[in-house]
Structures are given as C-alpha cells and as structure tokens.
Write a structure and sequence with these properties.
seven-stranded parallel beta sheet, alpha/beta, 292 residues, Rossmann fold, 42% helix
Length: 292
C-alpha cells in the first residue's frame, strides 16, 4: 500500500514483466551459463542442474577429462555444453574462454563462481598454531577463493554489463558466517567473497541497471575431495569433527551436491529478478541452530 506522503508512480508496472506460468519464470532455456570449478563435485552438479533447466553451459575448469565427463552427462539428455579449460586466476585464459562462449552462443547470462578450495598449510592443527601459519599458504587460499571469484566476475560480467542483464552466483561457505575452528584461511577468504557479493550487487545495479544481479549461496557441509578425510573415517564412520557437524545440523546429514541446484536455478532465473546482494544458506539448518 502506498504511503500518503509518497509521490504516485505514473507507471508502476512498466519494468515488471508478469506471467501466470510459474514454471516459465524458472526456465533457463534461453540462457547461457558459465560455471567455474565445474570439474569438481559441487561445480559439476551445478553445471548439470543448470543444463537440465535449459541453459547452455560452459564447463570451466583445469581438468579437461573431468570437464568432458560432465559434458557427456549433459549430452545424455540432449543438453548443450562447451568444455573450457582455464585457470580462474589466469586472466588471459579466462578471456579466451569468454571468446569461445561468445563465438558459440553470442551471449553470457549466468556466471556461477564455484571454483575455490582450501590449502593444507592454511589450517591450524596440533602441530601448527596461529603464530606459525605460513604467510604463503594464507595468501594462496585467499587468492584462490577471493581473486578466483573476482577475476571471472570481471571477465564474464563485462559481457553482462554490455547486455544490461545477467546473474552472478558466487559460492561462499558456512565458515564465512560462523568462523570454524582450524580453517582460518578458508574462513577469511569466504568472508571476503560474501563482502564482494554485496558490494558488486550494488555497483552493477546502480551503474548498469536492474537487469544485473549478484548473489551467493553458502553451502553447509558437503562431502568433497578436500574434506572427506576430515569428516569420514576409512570404515565410513564419522570422525570426531564429522560427528560434531552432524550434531549441529538439524537435518542430521551432510549435503548432497544436488541440494544446491534448486537455489542456483532460482537465483539465475527470472524468479529472483528482484533479489540481489543476498547470501542464501543451504545448510540443513546449521546456521539456525545454537546447539541448545
């Protein structure tokens, strides 16, 4: 309801496309997506999920064989994909990947920044204290996660700015919001990714229009290549850390890669056209639980 002291909007619906078809606003069949880190467990699931929603997907990662495996899955349901071998910190390689996508599909509508990870020497443990942390390792993990989000956003986001439309979805972590013991480098880096997400959302919307949006997903605890040994013993029982996480996750399980797909599709689609600058937890309730 309009406040009495607010000026009347002469055409309040001019920029508000409407549809009664809920399925249509989630449809990505006219969109082109690039997913970084798409050769990893989570990135591969996101690339396949976006393709199932209709998007044409650029699968960007350093491992060409893994990219091809993800592309093969997409081809099984007649989806369209393009393998892009590139390091997220190599701007020249990213520019080459951008050119390849534009040559194939002539536009870029969605960027999912899923590449990232941790560095062993940036973890505090019984042998390594805060005071003996490797400066090189700390810089490496911050560079990988923060600059590994910033640089693809600059390269691929420039196309979106020219188009006056596009959605960037960054991947953060629960450790950004509730700093976890041991993983200091990763927590600091992902906190920076969330700050970048909010800053860039404002910057792009104000300078390039309402059609550009930037949001993030903060996954809870998902089993991946880097953390499996920390959470699961060889006999498939939980480690002490793994059990602590499950005890503090109301849903009582780790996440499955496909659990991220629905949120990514929502943020990438017209269903979220008035959503920007937010970080969405997908964590089984971990962030809501105080432990009591």
């Amino acid at each position: 309801m309009q406040s009495p002291d607010q000026p009347a909007d002469p055409n309040p619906t001019a920029k508000m496309p409407r549809t009664n078809d809920t399925r249509r606003i989630f449809d990505l069949s006219d969109r082109v997506a690039v997913v970084t880190g798409a050769t990893g467990v989570l990135g591969s699931a996101l690339a396949i999920g976006l393709a199932r929603a209709g998007a044409k997907v650029g699968i960007l990662g350093r491992r060409s064989e893994a990219a091809e495996a993800t592309s093969a899955v997409i081809r099984e349901f007649d989806g369209q994909s393009l393998c892009l071998t590139a390091d997220i910190l190599d701007v020249a390689a990213l520019q080459a990947a951008k050119r390849a996508v534009l040559e194939r599909w002539n536009r870029i509508d969605i960027l999912v920044n899923c590449a990232g990870g941790n560095v062993a020497d940036a973890i505090v443990n019984n042998e390594r204290t805060f005071f003996t942390l490797s400066q090189e390792a700390m810089e490496q993990v911050v560079n990988l996660n923060l600059n590994g989000t910033l640089r693809p956003s600059q390269v691929f986001g420039e196309v979106m700015a020219d188009q006056k439309s596009g959605s960037i979805v960054n991947i953060s972590s629960m450790s950004a919001q509730k700093p976890l013991t041991r993983v200091i480098g990763y927590s600091v880096a992902k906190a920076a990714v969330e700050n970048l997400t909010r800053w860039l959302a404002v910057e792009l919307a104000k300078k390039f229009g309402e059609g550009l949006r930037v949001n993030a997903i903060a996954p809870g605890f998902f089993l991946g290549e880097q953390n499996r040994a920390l959470l699961i013993n060889e006999d498939r029982s939980l480690t002490h850390r793994g059990q602590t996480i499950i005890d503090h996750t109301p849903m009582g399980r780790f996440g499955h890669p496909d659990d991220l797909v629905g949120t990514a599709i929502w943020l990438a689609s017209d269903a979220a056209r008035f959503v920007t600058g937010v970080v969405v937890p997908v964590d089984g309730g971990f962030s809501a639980y105080s432990g009591v």
